[in-house]
Specification:
Blueprint: H1 2-5, E1 12-15, E2 20-26, E3 29-34, E4 38-43, E5 49-53, E6 76-79, E7 85-88, E8 93-96, E9 102-105, E10 111-115, E11 119-123, E12 134-141, E13 146-151, E14 162-166, E15 185-193, E16 196-202, E17 208-213, E18 227-233, E19 239-245, H2 247-258, E20 271-275, H3 281-293, E21 300-303, H4 324-333, E22 337-342, E23 346-347, H5 353-361, E24 374-377, E25 380-383, H6 390-398, H7 400-405, E26 410-413, E27 434-435, E28 442-443, H8 444-447, H9 451-466, E29 474-476, H10 498-512, E30 522-523, H11 532-542, E31 548-550, H12 566-581, H13 583-596, E32 601-602, H14 612-615, E33 621-623, E34 627-629, E35 639-651, E36 657-667, E37 675-678, E38 682-686, E39 692-697, E40 704-711, E41 721-730, E42 733-739, E43 747-751, E44 756-758
Parallel strand pairs: 20-21, 20-31, 21-22, 22-26, 26-29, 30-31, 39-43, 42-44
Antiparallel strand pairs: 1-11, 2-3, 3-4, 4-5, 5-19, 6-7, 7-8, 8-9, 9-10, 10-12, 11-12, 12-18, 13-15, 14-17, 15-16, 16-19, 17-18, 23-25, 24-25, 27-28, 32-33, 33-34, 34-37, 35-36, 35-37, 38-39, 40-41, 41-42
Helix pairs in contact: 6-9, 11-12
Length: 760
């Protein structure tokens, strides 16, 4: 199909911009014209800088939220030294050389990134219909710079020297470090260096690769080797955005550009149990009863493809699940929601209502001759909806009414890279398959990476319309930049083993730095049977991650905590109750992520990006501003070293104080993982009687601390209440000041080196 449907390759010729010939100032920047290309530079009102070559503009874009942001009217293009130009704004200065090199500088003039003149490869015989020139862009960063992001990467979160493909891929079976690429790639890098931090996003959905070479600092002057980055794309526009500032400011601007993260309903921040292979309603009831009888908190149960009739999407196997709405209602009475898997592949079988309706609607992907593209997925020979067509998204969204009627409270998108099983080659659709691409038209080379994103949009918009009084709950295995607008993601089929456990943390951290704050792994790994120790350490890690879910393949071992013996059950119960105790804190972090783009789970360098030791620390993380979690990622560990940032940190259990920055050794018994609390923090928790309680940790003398409590009732769109707190020492007591509604009630308890509280 591809041999017939793709443009034929032939001799190519390279092209570079050539010498500059002039410039045209425009609002927010301007256009610099070269002999063989042009560059548009524009600063948005929020400080993000857009650069587009060969006439590329910010739109159309799958990443941007709504219309293109307004320009910064204060930014302007003016001549620079050496026959170049510069655009000066409040947060960043961009200089363009007469050869086409672009430098991104801090307001003080320090270079954060230097883009060398790009290079295109075009057919030597001239333009070919359907062909898009491939291109390469090389850049240089500081020798001390560290790169993070590029979506979900198993070896990370720091991206070491190597090549990273930008092509959403089901690795097949299960993955572990250094397997790459995985399900959710995106050309987003967050670069952290002493001189400052910046995010760069190449807005191009084609297949590509990023090659990184970390820099080296020499002992003497002139011996440094800068870091290097090469971005290669097989086609599409050469355009990118750069955002400069602190990590928090960068992620805030990124969320303004690509959309605020969706706000999950409160129950989605609890514990979820899933399995491919429950097999029947009876088994689901048995498992849920096991949690309830043992006093283990449970928020949701996820049904995989085995609850479908012959794996056909939007169906139910009536023999094994004779009354799914009744099951959902009974579980809801116990506070447990049902979540349904939804795959994009539709069994291509006349008589299948979804397929027949899709044929009538012209909803499925076709080839250049107009024939339906087929693939092999779980239900057998299947057709694939074209989610890049607004009409198809609306048609597909109507089917979610069937899921709601069955009693499901949320959806889980799977297999949407998209996957088509293959004995060899790429397990996806033919590259020549045709897509609408919002009316522009194109093929799978351009549509592949945004297929899952467009499916997520279809599902999210449908749930909002079908059930407008409730916030949708949706997470997707695949996606692209902007996925956070519609929901979150998860690790996919991570392998069972200690490397898989380490990859679980890397994925959550890396995705958060790309703007997708809600994610988590399959606890215990997807494929195998974890040892009791591995399962427990995975469970303890996940209890501090946004999506807390056990899940396993149909051929894998059990994942209920009681299946691993009484000791594991006791410690898993403690982890579950701690997650439940921290529910107000997690809900607060969810609202802050929605408002500011800040991930729940943050690298240790989040507030101290100039601390080089923290930039290289990958075995601990911050949960919000207050908690430092140091999971156990290796077998047999009962003590571990923890690198702590600047300031005072208290052991959450013992109350012992540690001074940072530096390294400490703390106990890590099998019963828990080390958690440290920043001095001065106010952490909202659930008290012993079920009331909201504030844990106030004593600040350092002469320093202030604080926290925030954001609370709500229900799963809807009501405006939450927010109370902010400031703490300081007054003698031997902690003085707490509040700002917010007076009718918000809570108890307070002082922790750390203080004898009591002083409140207004």
């Amino acid at each position: 199909m591809d041999a017939a449907g793709l443009p034929r390759s032939g001799p190519e010729r390279a092209r570079v911009p050539g010498l500059a010939e002039g410039a045209e100032p425009q609002p927010g920047g301007g256009v610099v014209r070269f002999a063989r290309s042009s560059l548009r530079v524009r600063v948005a009102a929020g400080g993000a800088v857009f650069c587009g070559w060969d006439g590329a503009t910010p739109e159309p874009s799958y990443a941007l939220a709504g219309s293109c942001p307004e320009v910064d009217q204060r930014a302007f293009l003016e001549p620079d030294t050496e026959d170049g130009w510069r655009v000066v704004s409040e947060r960043v200065t961009v200089t363009v050389s007469r050869h086409g090199a672009v430098a991104v500088r801090t307001p003080g003039g320090v270079v954060l990134r230097r883009e060398l003149p790009p290079r295109w490869w075009e057919p030597a015989a001239g333009p070919v219909e359907g062909a898009r020139p491939r291109w390469t862009q090389r850049s240089v960063v500081a020798p001390d710079a560290r790169c993070f992001g590029l979506g979900g990467r198993s070896a990370g979160p720091r991206l070491r020297s190597g090549t990273y493909r930008l092509w959403n891929t089901d690795p097949g079976g299960a993955f572990e470090p250094p397997d790459d690429p995985l399900y959710l790639t995106m050309p987003v890098q967050l670069v952290v260096a002493d001189a400052g931090s910046h995010l760069i996003f190449h807005d191009n959905t084609w297949d590509g690769a990023v090659t990184l070479r970390e820099g080296v600092e020499g002992e003497g002057s002139g011996h440094d080797r800068p870091g290097r980055c090469e971005v290669r794309m097989e086609g599409g526009p050469l355009r990118y955005w750069v955002i400069v500032g602190t990590p928090a400011r960068v992620l805030h601007s990124w969320a303004q550009l690509t959309g605020a993260p969706a706000l999950p309903p409160p129950w989605a921040l609890g514990y979820h149990h899933a399995r491919w292979g429950f097999g029947s309603e009876r088994e689901v009831r048995r498992v849920v009863a096991g949690y309830l009888e043992r006093g283990l908190p449970l928020s949701a149960v996820h049904l995989d493809i085995d609850h479908y009739d012959g794996h056909r999407v939007f169906t139910v196997d009536r023999e094994r699940f004779p009354d799914l709405p009744r099951l959902a209602a009974d579980l809801a009475d116990d506070g447990v929601r049902l979540v349904s898997i939804v795959d994009p592949a539709v069994k291509a079988e006349p008589g299948n209502p979804v397929y027949d309706a899709g044929v009538a609607a012209g909803a499925f992907v076709r080839d250049g001759s107009g024939r339906e593209v087929r693939g092999e997925v779980w239900p057998g020979e299947s057709a694939f909806p074209d989610f890049t067509d607004p009409r198809v998204r609306a048609w597909w969204g109507e089917w979610y009414a069937e899921r709601l009627a069955q009693g499901f409270a949320g959806v889980w998108h799977d297999m949407n890279e998209p996957v088509s099983f293959a004995a060899f080659g790429d397990p996806t659709l033919p590259l020549s398959a045709r897509h609408a691409l919002e009316g522009r038209g194109g093929d799978h080379r351009e549509a592949h990476n945004v297929y899952g994103l467009a499916m997520a949009r279809a599902g999210y918009e449908a749930l909002r319309e079908l059930r407008p009084e409730q916030r949708p709950f949706l997470f997707s295995r695949s996606g692209w930049a902007g996925l956070q607008r519609y929901g979150g993601t998860w690790s996919g089929d991570v392998s069972t083993g200690w490397p898989g456990l380490r990859a679980s943390l890397a994925l959550v951290l890396g995705l958060g730095l790309c703007g997708v704050p809600y994610s988590g792994p399959d606890v215990g790994g997807f494929t195998g049977s974890p040892s009791p120790e591995l399962y427990l350490r995975w469970f303890q890690l996940a209890s501090y991650l946004p999506l807390f879910r056990t899940h396993a393949a149909i051929t894998a071992g059990r994942r209920e905590p009681w299946e691993f013996g009484p000791e594991v059950l006791e410690h898993a119960r403690a982890a579950l109750h701690e997650r439940q105790r921290l529910a107000p804190y997690f809900l607060t972090l969810a609202h802050l992520a929605h408002r500011t783009g800040a991930p729940y789970v943050r690298p240790l360098w989040w507030r101290w990006p100039r601390d080089r030791a923290l930039r290289d620390c990958e075995d601990a993380f911050l949960l919000g501003d207050s908690l430092l979690v140091a999971p156990v990622l290796e077998p047999g560990v009962r003590q571990r070293m923890v690198r702590v940032p600047r300031g005072r940190w208290y052991d959450q259990v013992t109350g012992q104080a540690y001074e940072g920055p530096g390294r400490i050794v703390v106990d890590a018994p099998l019963s828990r993982v080390p958690v440290l609390v920043r001095a001065g923090s106010v952490v909202p928790v659930v008290g012993e009687r079920g009331e909201t309680e504030l844990e106030v940790w004593a600040p350092m003398v002469g320093r202030t601390g604080g926290g925030v409590l954001i609370s709500e009732t229900g799963d809807g769109w009501e405006e939450p209440t927010e109370v902010r707190f400031t703490t300081r020492m007054r003698g031997e007591r902690v003085a707490v000041e509040r700002e917010g509604p007076e009718d918000v009630k809570y108890a307070m308890r002082v922790r750390g080196e203080a004898v009591g509280l002083v409140t207004p």
